[in-house]
Amino acid sequence: MTGPRSSPPARRRLIPSARPGTAPGEPRLVGLLYVLPALAFFAVFGIWPFIQTVLISFTRWRGIGEQVPVGLDNYADVLRDDDLYMAFVRAIILILFYAILPMCIGLLLAALLSRVRIRGLGTYRVLLFLPQVIAAVVIAIAWRWIYSANGVLNETLDLIGLGALTRSWLGDFDLALPAIGLVGTWLNAGLAMIFFVAGVQRIPLDLYDAARVDGAGPWKEFRAVTLPGLRNEIVVVLTITVIFALRNFDLIWVTTRGGPGDATTTPSVLLYELGFEARRLGSASAIAVLLTMLILAVTILIVRIGERGDPEASR
Q1: For residues 301-307, average pLDDT
Q2: pTM assigned to the model
């Protein structure tokens, strides 16, 4: 009889085991190498210019010559400026047109699509998203023509017998800002629709069937099924559109240049006027820093509110 057979030697492991508490797969250093090119690009063209802007905001500088340190004087000057206060008020008003109205339109269409299936939905998506791929300058020029005295809007009003309503829309002190806002509504409504229509398609149909079996009407079905299912999409859409409303410059500058008077002057327009026309780079940089802080605060607030209502995020 032969003795007990010895067990074969253990094979040498070619892949080192992951450290306890770490996810399996590539080492963390390799993952960092993947994002290094994008991180380097963002650092050079995003982080470093912002640091420079912060440093300039503490100086008095006309773009050339010596930078004279002035401490917090630039911030004190712009915070006491009534023009900046009104510019932020107008930016907040634009949030209604650029964010709230597009979100409501998108949610309405999403609610309709949850009850009715439409053929050729891909074609509609392309048409709705088309304004997002057109340069904002082109959109501004087109709408400036539409709003002009001899533009499509006034000609249409004349054609249907409402000539008494025609006016210079972008030259009216009371209507210029809402007119610009409606352009933003048209521009961002397609973006909101794309997000919400895609979100509705991932909501299980069983939830809608169960709600209808329980006798839920359209409003209750929307409130109990569609709205909670689109929570993440709502956070994304609000974040994108609110940032666009607060920092929007090209659309306003091409259409009205902040006019008539200062009726459409927003912080970004005021920043441009101070920095590139008045050559007050320190004050312009201070406004840029304040605007960045406001956008950051609003973004964090939107994300926090979205996470508070998400049961999965609180786990």
Answers
A1: 87
A2: 0.81
